[in-house]
Amino acid sequence: MKSIINDIKTRFEISDIVKQRDNFNFLTCKKEQTVSLITHLKNIEGFSHFVLLTAVDWIEEGKFQLTYILNNPDKKIDIGIRTFIERETATMDSAHHLWEHVATYQRELKEMFGIDFPGSPRVDESFILEGWDDIPPYRRDFDTKKYSEETFFPREGRTTNDPTEYMKKKLYPDEEK
Amino acid sequence: MKKNNNNIFNWQADRSKYPELDKNGKPIVDLASHKYTKIWQGPNHPGVTGNMSLELTLSGDEIVDAKTHVGYLHRGFEKLMERRIYFKGLATSIRMCVPEADSNEYVYSSCVEDLANIEVPEMALWLRTLALEMARLQVLLRTVPGQASTLSLGLGGQWGMYIRDLILDRFEELTGGRVYHMFIIPGGVRGLLPDGFKKRMEENLKEVDEFVEKIEDLIYSNSIFKKRTVGVGVIDPSWVSKYGIVGPNARAAGFKRDVRKDYPYLKYNELDFEVFTATDSDIYTRNQIRKQDLITTVDLIRQILAKMPDKGELRAKTPNVLHWEIEKGETYQRSESSRGEYGMYMVSDGSKYPRRINLRGPSYTHAVSLLEKMLINANIADVHSIMVSLQTCPPEIER
Questions:
Q1: Do B207 and B269 belong to one domain?
Q2: Which residues of B lie inside 8 Å of A (Cβ-Cβ)?
Q3: Which ipTM was obtained for this model?
Q4: Searching chain A, which residue's CA lies closest to the CA of residue B348?
Q5: What is each CA distance from A60 to A29, B25, B62, B333, in whole angstroms?
Q6: H or E segment at A52?
Q7: Tell me, what CATH number does B86's domain have?
Q8: Distance from the CA of A41 to the CA of which of A109, A160, A168, B52 falls in 20 to 30 A?
């Protein structure tokens, strides 16, 4: 693992290397070099299993963190690659040409976080949400409670009660006054 | 269409005329030509596994294009967990795959423990291993004979459900719940084995042994089952990396991959078991691999019950769970569910709430990109058995 990290250090601009476990490292790569790094790890270092791609919304810093986790099934090691993109523009190079299922992850990220991956197959088709017209729901500034209250008809039995007061009223109705 | 040897199971479609393929190899489908039919299988259909649907384009009985549609079950769990304290998030996490909720409990708890540097006591590790294997057993008791039910051989499936119910009785005894257990919690587990549990479990395991013996004749020697599953729904070994295939689906294609062996966790490195592989990679072989997993699981439960201590500490000391703040960090934890690698990525930001949780379930790839690929050229009658053979679980796709 150490030799792989040392090797990619010489080829790519990587930083914030964190050894999570003996066989698992996280590192940060520049946005422009990320897909090249992933390609290098897949083709040269044997990281043939693409585990996941997801995003973290660091709204305070105006950034999205994209995390790619790759696995080398022969050496039984993993690498987590972080890359940061601007929240405002939210565009990233597509990696769908490397593994077929990457396109699904990218399609979900477009829908849920509004991160675009130009050229990725069916990236603009809705995946989980249909007819969604609000901001992408997994962004931190999307308020699920407010959305539910505005969108859905309030149903009976959904009132919130203070348990002490509620039980008091129910068990000792006469004592209330 | 042409038929070979007048045998309906051997016919092959004449693809020389249509559909025409574009330069990317995609079929050009003109519905107005009346050569094609578009049908939806699901979301409420006995021939799909759970709440998802397939948009199928057919030429006769043969599928020329398939698209998976999900979203019928989206409850935004990952988002909801960002608004719940770490301890409360556990109750949400288990709902991300209903049939095997214990894998969720384990990966969630193990992420929290890794981020908070908590060491789980020995006794809890054994009990966790037991709970995970019991979960695998009850799922396989449904899935293995359930494959025959997709071909209308319902007896095996119903028999399996009865035996599964006995395992759920043991779960109820151990955890208080039948489907959702919340037995594995951040820091450890909730309780010890009840008195007489080992004896009752052994009685149930004997029934499982007998069941496994009998399904050999009932299912695997059945000529219809063989006709409909041998050579059908084949996964090309070259697809395993390309589509991120894991678990029994990868093992049936010749790849010896099992998280329990490759990245030993809990007490698996102290247990003696083999990872079985095969090469035919069709529905029949995948089912055989799962049957072998079932036998292995029964053996593992016996080993765990024999090796585990009777008493011990159940839970590591954690801060007050209502005010538990975990310093900034990130982790990925995986386990081997009955469907394959089941992982969770968790990011903490120093507050009481996780910043981000992402689940990596096997169905995310198996039921979307892989299934869409496998259904091309398949017969409409085989769709259900192909889906079941991939053991898809829609809730883990849309979390």
A1: yes
A2: 70-71, 74, 76, 78-80, 82-83, 114, 241-244, 255, 257, 262-263, 330-332, 341, 343, 345, 347, 355-356, 358, 360, 364-365, 368-370, 373, 398
A3: 0.89
A4: A56
A5: 21, 45, 52, 27
A6: strand A49-58
A7: 1.10.645.10
A8: A109
A144 close to B (CB below 8 A): yes
CA closest to A16 among chain B residues: B329
The answer to whether A13 touches B321, Cβ cutoff 8 Å, is no
d(CA B91, CA B81): 9
Average pLDDT for A86-104 = 93
Residues whose CB is less than 8 angstroms from the CB of residue A142 and which lie 6 or more positions away in sequence, other chains included = A134, A135, A136, B79
What's the domain range around B25?
13-69
Half-sphere exposure (CA, 13 Å, Cβ side) for B300?
27
Q: Are residues B138 and B207 in the same domain?
A: yes
What is the 8-class DSSP label of residue B95?
G
Count Cβ–Cβ pairs < 8 Å, chain A vs chain B. Answer: 84
What is the extent of the structural domain holding A75?
Answer: 2-176
A68: nearest CA in chain B?
B345
User: What does the pLDDT look like over B68-81, one tens digit per residue?
Assistant: 998 888 888 999 99
Residue A111, chain B, CB below 8 Å: the answer is: no
Bridge partners (DSSP) of residue B175 are none
Are B244 and A69 inside 8 Å of each other by CB? no
Give residue-wise pLDDT tens across range B350-363: 999 999 999 999 99
- Return the residue of B nearest to A46 by Cα: B241
Distance, in Å, from the CA atom of B97 to the CA atom of B364, rounded to the nearest integer, reads 12
Confidence (pTM): 0.90
Contact (Cβ atoms closer than 8 angstroms) between residue B136 and residue B164: no
- Give the pLDDT score at B323: 87
CB nearest B345 (choices: A23, A54, A100): A54
Can you tell me the mean pLDDT for B187-215?
93
Joined together, the tokens standing for residue A174 give 């006469």
- The DSSP output letter for B72 is S
CA dihedral A102, A105, A108, A112 (to 10 degrees): -130
Contact, B85 vs B93, CB < 8 A? Answer: no
- CATH number of residue A157's parent domain: 3.30.460.80
